[in-house]
Design a protein that fits this description.
It is built from eleven helices and eleven strands. The chain is of the alpha/beta class. It is an enzyme of class 3 (hydrolase).
């Protein structure tokens, strides 16, 4: 079995993920938000790619809350932004969260041709690795990226996931997967690497240091969200 990485959501095609299991990673911050919401009792997370689609989807569901961002800031009229700190049980318990973000929900949607699509981040690196290793598919880790470009934060998180997967069973790594693994091993504190990322600096300029601190907490949660038929849940 093989592990490969697609470095931005924009590069995902149905053919590139066909007959594989995909792990979508947007560590700062969409997949960290999804994991946090479901850990704190959300019934589901429905990822959509536009504000208009979010508003239309809201009409079809009950007990809904709208979350997301554009340019890393809360969308006007939405209840929540893209901060995992906002998705506590008081806000999301037993609710259907409709989420739209610049990068992460786009990458999730584009990965739908895979056999299975799991949601990963540093928050659940070990758990998602164990889940994926149960299967027999080749694995593609989709980095959401930032505005269609490579994102350092997603890449080192991919290395963390790959390291965990290799501790469970053997895989053949592509060159890009090997590079992510090497970067992870060279920066076990994460921050020494991620602080050089463009997206990190954008979030810091917006005063979102607490978000970053949470998102870099490896293996805080042991849950594995799965995307299926347009919805993300813990159990189907």
């Amino acid at each position: 079995m093989k592990i490969d990485i697609i470095t931005t959501g924009n590069h995902v095609t149905p053919e590139s993920v066909k007959n594989t299991t995909v792990i979508v990673i947007d560590v700062l911050r969409a997949t960290s938000v999804i994991i946090s919401a479901l850990k704190n009792g959300a019934k589901s997370v429905v990822p959509v790619t536009s504000v208009e689609e979010a508003l239309e989807t809201k009409k079809k569901l009950e007990n809904v809350i709208l979350g997301g961002e554009r340019k890393a800031q809360k969308i006007e009229g939405f209840e929540l932004s893209n901060s995992p700190l906002e998705y506590g049980s008081t806000a999301v318990y037993d609710k259907n969260v409709i989420l739209t973000t610049t990068n992460g929900t786009h990458a999730i949607s584009k990965s739908s041709a895979a056999n299975k699509v799991y949601i990963g981040a540093l928050l659940n690196a070990r758990a998602v690795s164990e889940k994926v290793a149960e299967g027999g598919d080749d694995v593609v880790i989709v980095n959401s990226g930032t505005n269609g470009q490579f994102s350092m934060d997603d890449f080192i998180a991919s290395g963390a996931v790959i390291s965990e997967m290799l501790s469970i069973r053997d895989y053949e790594l592509s060159d890009v997967a090997k590079t992510a693994l090497l970067i992870y091993k060279a920066h076990p504190d994460f921050l020494s690497y991620i602080r050089e990322a463009r997206h990190y600096k954008v979030l810091m300029d917006l005063g979102l240091e607490e978000d970053i601190r949470l998102c870099l907490h490896k293996d805080l949660y042991d849950i594995v969200p799965e995307y299926k038929n347009g919805i993300i849940k813990l159990n189907f």
